[in-house]
Design a protein that fits this description.
Elements: H1 2-16, H2 21-35, E1 45-46, E2 59-60, E3 63-65, E4 71-74, E5 78-82, E6 86-87, E7 91-98, E8 104-109, E9 127-131, E10 136-139, E11 141-144, E12 154-160, E13 165-170, E14 173-180, E15 191-197, E16 201-205, H3 230-247, E17 249-252, E18 257-260, H4 272-288, H5 292-306, H6 318-329, H7 332-352, H8 360-373, H9 376-385, H10 423-457, H11 469-486, H12 497-521, H13 555-561, H14 563-570, E19 572-573, H15 576-582, E20 633-635, E21 646-647, H16 659-663, H17 687-734, H18 740-770, H19 774-795, H20 807-821, H21 835-849, H22 858-871, H23 875-883, H24 886-896, H25 905-916, H26 951-963, H27 965-998, H28 1007-1033, H29 1036-1039, H30 1046-1065, H31 1070-1077, H32 1087-1102, H33 1107-1119, H34 1125-1130, H35 1161-1183, E22 1203-1206, E23 1211-1212, H36 1214-1221, E24 1236-1239
Antiparallel strand pairs: 1-6, 2-5, 3-4, 4-16, 5-15, 7-12, 7-16, 8-9, 8-15, 9-10, 10-11, 12-13, 13-14, 17-18, 19-20, 20-21, 22-23, 22-24
Helix pairs in contact: 1-2, 2-3, 3-4, 3-5, 5-7, 7-8, 7-9, 8-10, 9-11, 10-12, 10-18, 11-17, 12-17, 17-18, 17-20, 19-20, 19-21, 21-22, 21-23, 22-25, 24-26, 25-28, 27-28, 27-30, 27-31, 28-32, 30-32, 30-36, 32-35
């Protein structure tokens, strides 16, 4: 090394000095000084010189530690870890970068401290901690101390072992001495330590990086564990200065003198003497740039200073020139390490920078990142070797928890109703709106820079130095999605959802800009407004969907069962060997292929689980996981007149794909290989953008939608606190002057509510600007339209629709839900362009695919059913269902009326009920009468919407049931079966609840049991309403006995109605007692909903039918052994109360007359008419000659014998034999097979 130094000095003296005398003396003196440099020694500490976290023995609980052993995340109840090096004398400091603001205790401990899942740092005698979450300090006992911390803050932990004190600083500001008189001397040495709860994360700095908040309070008196490289810092700064001087100097060869010039105009093809000089400077500068401390403190700050003058990044070419020199004059390993550390430092600085009113820090770091990525070679290198994509923190804008530091003081909550606001409230509202507008403008600047970064990474024209950036990005992006899709149950390796939301919006903006640029270059392609993902991506094997579920089941199963369809519709031939390799079900098939020809299946590679960089301090270590994609054999996708030539093509793994594999060339369609006949032969856009768009849809499904739902809680909290504050203000106004104690407490509450409301309203302003803005809503809306068009195109392929991943249907349903529920009221979904058409398209998808046989997944089928059930609850979306083509409407209703067995009948039943709600007897309510005084949990729930019946769909239902007698009989039979089951389960459960309530000992009824009980009751009511709808729309199903099953269905209906009435109307019965308990969870259980449903059915068959139908219905109802006239009288409060005894004298009886707001006068009159009619019929039946016991059915003993069996000639009533033959063909008595049933009439002679 010394010889190299002397060679440089000799060169400068003989060659450079005549032209560079201005810097000769400084450079020569510096190099001479470096020759005699020696390092400092650390005194007062014990342990390794490289201080990291002790991941081998110094921890308790489950933690995840970064590869650099400086970042940590808790993964158990309360985990603890300490550093590898301790201190025993002197003054020491280390820094902790807070990644999350949750429960953590940071400080110092001795080797003798023993921690567990309940006790951590500060909970033992010789450990001391600061807790910014609870704003306390801990040493066995706890007291108030310090300030609250937030994500992004820096905690400095200082220990003075000479004075015996411990102090903490927050963002460079001293919080005061926390502990004094700590134990020191022989046997006492203190380790940096932390205890943190589940999912909390931090990053330590023991001196390997520069101070984040240099403060004179401790910078010159306290020491870091790792001594800052002072000499290297001086050397690097001087060499950088020389470098800048050379770049800003030119040589006048004619006059042989140096001339000053603008460094930005320097070209790398300049004077060779300058290049030689730069080479010698870089000879000493390059090794220094491999050290993270120098990169962050010297190089990054120098590059940031270049951009301080403002203007666009293009106006500062010096950064590009420096990067050119790096690649020219530094070794490959040196420039790679330098760029890697530079990007890591930028990422760390951006994440942990404080939020100031103009977001200046964030903008500054993003501008430098943009400048670096504008350099083509550096961008490609970073994209390949440094996982920039996974550090999506660059696209995240964190929320300021301390609003004063973010300049949001004026953003206070506005009055909800502007019609009632005072002049002061009006001024506050206007100030709030102005603050929100300024905030949005500041955020838009940051978002524009983030989009610029993504546009650079999506550049596909920079092919001069190898593969274009976009294809590097695409492969990285696919791996990113794979990691997040394959580790859904392991949150420590997932990208945080709040980062994913911001990343998705920036990516959508970048994709659409490139898409529309392509449209301008190629007018024949489609615009981004009509974007969709073509269906061939789902089955041609070019895009790997990992282990994500397809609509038709497992991919291996689909390849096997649909191989003929693939060949006929898409010219794709599946290799039999591939089928054997990817499906465990095929082991016994295609034996002629041979085991030797079978390629290996999916392989998962990787080592120990590493924590991703976005959860703590950024690191480069990454477990290399991938799943190999399936291999397929493909035919040429073009369709010549002659039979196409078969060409076998094996799909490459993601990391091996090239531009040609994606975009295609020379007749190869790339990603679009295998275009089906139904797909238009029209250019869409660049094929790489299609795969990125497909990934964006997957991102939304992975975590974005869930995060959008979580952030709505802030808006709900604001509403709750606004109501509480208003209520408190009213109480203060009413408080009597003689009660100052009450007034004082109310004023304290008022202050607390006002402070909390102001804090939440400021946070809500930030959320509305970053997550729920109009622009973000348009992004989600565009994604919804993309998925709708994609599903429509895939559906047109017929059986190949089964290859579509399930997440497309999930995103369609979830994105519509987000637009409807999350972005309001600040943004209205009805104002979106083309909203009505989109609503109709979505309605068509739900109506067609909720019972699509091509979809086999139970979860996705249930989701589609639930989405349709919610869809028909709202007037606007219900009208959209009515606008779809009649053929699709009829098909939907036919699927809804299919027998309930072997399908999710409960959801189907809810849909039918909602189509009827508003038309039934007393069925015009939004909430049940007895629940009006209680506050609903969420007024936006579908079940709490105003009734909006569909007469059109009811008419379709009537047509189907009238025309298809077999379907009508099987449908109603299944409804009656489910009603019998649901009500029986309900009765059984309330018996158990009543028994538990009557026990003398204290008992608690399981909340799950209460919920199931209430669900069974609601199901019983809804099934009764479906029966009411059916008998209203198509009464002949029950009353026209020329139909095969009409009499049987009517008898079964009467039997069930009588059972329900008897159970519910009996005085002092089980139902009454459970209702009067008013147990939480059973709020919906009451007399009204079930009795009016039964009454509606009875009125339809006994009052609203024709004379013959009324006669038949009355005959069947009265002949049922369970019929009691008292149950009908109970409906009008006319039951005989004498049986109840004196104890019930004061008890209020149920009566339909009491519900005048719910039951019309006409309906009351019909009930009275029905009661009069049944009373007369009962009297006549009682006066008639009783049937001989010999003539009664030997099965039920309720009806006369009316049927004779063939060939055995045994007899019963028609109802019994018809119900028996639905499930069994053997005779009741002799077990002979029944071949026929004839009518039986008793001979006159007998």
């Amino acid at each position: 090394m010394f010889s190299a130094m002397f060679s440089l000095i000799y060169f400068i003296y003989n060659t450079v000095y005549p032209m560079y005398s201005l810097i000769y003396v400084d450079l020569l003196m510096y190099l001479t000084f470096y020759l005699f440099f020696c390092t400092d020694q650390i005194d007062g500490c014990l342990g390794p010189s490289t201080v990291v976290l002790d991941h081998s023995s110094g921890f308790e609980g489950l933690l995840f530690v970064d590869d650099d052993l400086l970042g940590v995340i808790g993964h158990s109840n309360f985990s603890s870890i300490r550093a590898t090096t301790c201190v025993y004398k002197g003054k020491w400091v280390y820094e902790v970068l807070i990644s999350s603001q949750g429960l953590m205790q940071i400080g110092w401990c001795t080797l003798n401290c023993r921690f567990n899942q309940e006790e951590g740092v500060g909970d033992t005698p010789d450990s001391y901690a600061y807790d910014g979450n609870r704003v306390r300090k801990w040493n066995v006992t706890t007291t108030n101390y310090g300030k609250s911390w937030a994500a992004g803050d820096i905690v400095s932990c200082l220990i003075d072992l000479d004075e015996g004190t411990i102090t903490f600083c927050l963002n460079g500001q001293s919080l005061g001495v926390a502990f004094s008189n700590i134990k020191t001397g022989p046997g006492f040495a203190y380790f940096p330590a932390i205890s943190l709860s589940f999912k909390e994360s931090v990053a330590f700095n023991f001196g390997s990086r520069p101070l984040r908040y240099p403060s004179h309070f401790y910078a010159y008196t306290y020491r870091f564990y790792i001594i800052p490289p002072t000499t290297d810092l001086t050397k690097a700064n001087r060499l950088l200065g020389y470098l800048k001087t050379v770049l800003s100097t030119s040589i006048d060869t004619q006059e042989e003198k140096l001339m000053a010039r603008d460094g930005g105009t320097w070209q790398i093809q300049g004077d060779p003497t300058i290049l030689v000089t730069l080479a010698h400077i870089f000879n000493h500068f390059a090794p220094l740039m491999c050290k993270v401390y120098l990169v962050e403190d010297v190089l990054m700050n120098f590059l940031l200073s270049i951009l301080e003058g403002g203007g666009s990044v293009d106006e500062h070419p010096l950064i590009q020139q420096l990067l050119d020199l790096f690649w020219l004059l530094m070794e490959d390993h040196e420039v790679s390490e330098c760029l890697k550390q530079l990007m890591m430092s930028l990422l760390r600085a951006y994440r942990f920078s404080p939020i100031i009113p103009d977001l200046g820090f964030q903008i500054h770091y993003l501008r430098l990142t943009t400048a670096i990525l504008r350099h083509e070679k550096s961008r490609k290198y970073l994209s390949i070797t440094f996982d920039v994509l996974r550090s999506v923190v660059f696209f995240y804008i964190k929320t300021p928890l301390r609003v004063k530091e973010a300049g949001l003081e004026e953003n206070i909550w506005k009055h909800e109703d502007t019609r009632e606001e005072t002049s002061e409230e009006r001024l506050r509202r206007r100030a709030y709106e102005r603050g929100c507008h300024r905030l949005k403008k500041r955020i838009e600047v940051v978002e524009e820079l983030q989009v610029q970064i993504l546009r650079l990474m999506l550049n596909n024209k920079d092919k001069g130095t190898g593969e274009a950036s976009r294809y590097i990005f695409l492969n990285k992006f696919r791996k990113f999605l794979q990691e997040n899709a394959s580790n859904r149950g392991n949150p420590t390796v997932l990208c945080p959802p709040e980062y994913m939301v911001c990343f998705l919006h920036r990516l959508i903006t970048a994709i659409r800009s490139y898409w529309d640029e392509g449209k301008r270059r190629s007018p024949g392609s489609i615009s981004s407004e009509d974007a969709y993902v073509p269906p061939q991506l789902f089955y041609n094997g070019k895009v790997d969907y990992f282990d994500l579920q397809r609509l038709g089941g497992l991919l291996s199963h689909l390849k096997k069962t649909l191989k003929d369809d693939l060949a006929a519709k898409a010219n794709i031939i599946i290799d039999p060997a591939e089928i054997q390799a990817t499906s465990m079900d095929d082991l016994d098939e295609d034996e002629e292929t041979g085991a030797a020809q079978r390629p290996s299946g999916a392989v998962a590679m990787g080592g120990a689980l590493a924590r991703p960089s976005w959860l703590s301090s950024p690191t480069l270590g990454r477990a290399n996981r991938f799943l190999s994609t399936a291999a397929v054999s493909l035919m040429t996708p073009r369709r010549p007149l002659a039979p196409p030539e078969k060409v076998k093509i094996r799909t490459l793994a993601v990391e091996h794909r090239t531009e040609e594999d994606i975009e295609g060339s020379h007749g190869n369609d790339g990603l679009l290989l295998g275009r089906p006949f139904e797909e238009p032969d029209q250019p869409i856009t660049e094929k790489s953008l299609l795969e990125i768009l497909d990934g964006v849809v997957m991102m939304y499904n992975l975590s974005v939608h869930q995060q959008l739902g979580k952030m709505v809680v802030v808006s709900d909290d604001v509403h709750e606190y606004a109501i509480a504050l208003k209520d408190t203000d009213e109480k203060i106004a009413r408080c009597p002057s003689r009660r100052p104690d009450i007034l004082e407490e109310l004023q304290k509450s008022q202050k607390v509510f006002a402070e909390k409301l102001n804090h939440l309203s400021r946070r809500l302003a930030w959320i509305n600007a970053t997550i729920y803005s109009k622009e973000k809503m348009l992004d989600v809306y565009w994604l919804l339209q993309v998925c709708i068009r994609t599903i429509e195109h895939a559906d047109s392929t017929g059986s190949l629709f089964a290859f579509m991943p399930e997440f497309y249907l999930n995103v369609v349903m979830n994105s519509y839900s987000a637009l409807k529920n999350y972005f309001s009221p600040s943004n209205c979904i009805e104002e979106l362009p083309g909203y009505e058409d989109t609503l109709a398209q979505l309605a068509a998808i739900l109506a067609k695919h909720f019972a699509d046989p091509r979809i086999v997944g139970t979860d996705i089928k249930d989701s589609l059913m639930q989405a349709l059930a919610s869809y028909v609850c709202y007037p606007q979306s219900l009208r959209a269902v009515e606008r779809i083509p009649e053929e699709q409407r009829m098909a939907m209703m036919r699927n809804l009326l299919a027998p309930y067995e072997q399908r999710p009948w409960a959801q189907t039943n809810w849909i039918l009920v909602r189509l009827w709600r508003g038309c039934g007897f007393g069925y015009r309510y939004t909430r049940l009468p007895h629940l009006l005084k209680t506050k609903p949990e969420d007024a936006n729930l579908p079940s709490l919407q105003k009734p909006c019946p569909s007469l059109l769909l009811q008419r379709h239902m009537a047509e189907l049931l009238s025309q298809d007698k077999d379907m009508a009989a099987s449908f109603l039979n299944s409804v009656l079966n489910q009603l019998n089951w649901a009500f029986s389960e309900f009765i059984g459960m309330i018996q158990e609840i009543q028994q538990a309530a009557e026990r003398p000992e204290r008992n608690f009824v399981d909340t799950r049991q209460l919920k199931v009980c209430a669900t069974c009751f609601d199901l019983s009511v809804s099934l009764l309403r479906v029966l009411e709808m059916t008998i209203t729309l198509v009464p002949e199903i029950f009353l026209d006995w020329t139909r095969p099953s009409a009499e049987l269905l009517l008898r079964r209906l009467a039997q069930l109605l009588n059972q329900v009435l008897n159970r519910v109307t009996a005085e002092r019965n089980l139902f009454d007692r459970v209702v009067n308990l008013r147990l939480p969870g059973l709020e919906s259980v009451d007399h009204y909903p079930i009795l009016v449903a039964v009454t509606g059915i009875l009125v339809r068959i006994l009052v609203d039918s024709n004379k013959q139908g009324i006669s038949r219905a009355a005959s069947v109802l009265l002949s049922d052994p369970c019929f009691q006239l008292r149950s009908i009288q109970y409906l009008l409060g006319e039951g005989d109360a004498g049986d109840a005894g004196a104890a019930s004298a004061d008890r209020k009886h149920f009566s339909l007359h009491a519900y005048t707001d719910y039951i019309s006068t006409e309906e009351e009159q019909k009930v009275e008419q029905m009661l009069t009619f049944l009373t007369e019929e009962s009297k006549q039946a009682a006066a008639s000659t009783p049937t001989s016991e010999d003539d009664l059915c030997p099965i039920c003993y309720a009806h006369s014998i009316s049927a004779i069996f063939k060939p055995c000639s045994h007899k019963s009533c028609k109802a019994c034999i018809n119900q028996h033959l639905m499930n069994n063909k053997d005779c009741f008595f002799c077990k002979a097979t029944i071949t026929g049933v004839d009518d039986y009439t008793k001979p006159a002679s007998s």
